[in-house]
Design brief:
DNA Methylase, Chain A, domain 2, two-stranded antiparallel ribbon
Amino acid sequence: MPNVIDLFSGAGGLSLGAARAGFNVIAAVENDKFAIDTHTRNFPNVHHLQQDVTAITATDIRSNVEIDNNDLFGVIGGPPCQGFSSIGNQNVYDPRNVLFHKFFEFVAELHPDFYLVENVPGILNKKYNELRTAALSQLDGYTKLPPLTICAFDYGAPTFRTRIFFIGYRNDLKNKIIEQDFINAKVPQNTTPVVEDALRGLPKRICFSKNNTGQCVMEENYLADKTLLNNYFHSRVISHIPHGVGQKNSIDDYLEHGIVSGCFFTNHTAEVQDRYRKVKCGKADKISKSIKLKPNSFCPTLRAGTGPERGSYQAVRPLHYKSPRVITPREAARLQGFPDWFVFQPTIWHSFRQIGNSVSPLVAERVMSVIYQKLTL
């Protein structure tokens, strides 16, 4: 299997997509201790480096992972996007913006067969032209595709989330990739499930007991419904577990007993619940600003909130379309396209941050399957 390294790996959305596409994720680099802990839980055979990428070099990675450039097929990653986001200040001098440049510095030194980097649409703002040009100019001998605008619902994930992918490959490779290849990878029209279908099988009413562990049992017969396995979304939610990926006890609990984690409740007061009941689907609560999901549509882009270095502010979470509450981490994971057996941090805040920051593994799988099929077969 061709080896890839995931820089800025987060919880592992890109890593899971790469593994499902046929790649071997040999290393993940992530500075956030909670994110890399989640990655470690789900990718136990990967070499994990909890490092600030500005403090390490390609030589450090090679020595830690014990590989040379000839053993490395790809470098993938999603550098922090907050400095480019349209909902932020879009400060050209945001110190986090240098990490986009740093990604390509690693690519230039590691010289893999291909690279893939993901970020928010705001990075294409003309104010960042110089930054993008400087980052990409570090690469010699690569075919650099135009930035690809990828809408998640076109690739099987039930969300309006839109991201930009920068993809390139070495000029000396036999096969070539063109932009149309990724357009052809879209799922058939009208096959991506809407919110109501995407949340199918998860309990709509969560128990508000003080001893809640974040675990619940799927609705009866959900796992036994073989028709779901014929659907791209549900087949990935239920199964399609790459060899060596996943936490064994969580997978066993899920497949044998239908147990899923991440069903942590938010215990709203009776007054808040009453207010949420009155919000119409597609509209926002006037106080919390939470939007109630529309059951027959896609989910708005899930936000991550801020890290501890910026106040640990919690992102506004959508309201469930039927129950008077915000969605649980597991429901958010479903809407982002994560499988039910994938485990997150055992706190609501960290779970939502990791899900909101992640690339949808469904999107990552289809995009990287193009690369795998074009460059390795």
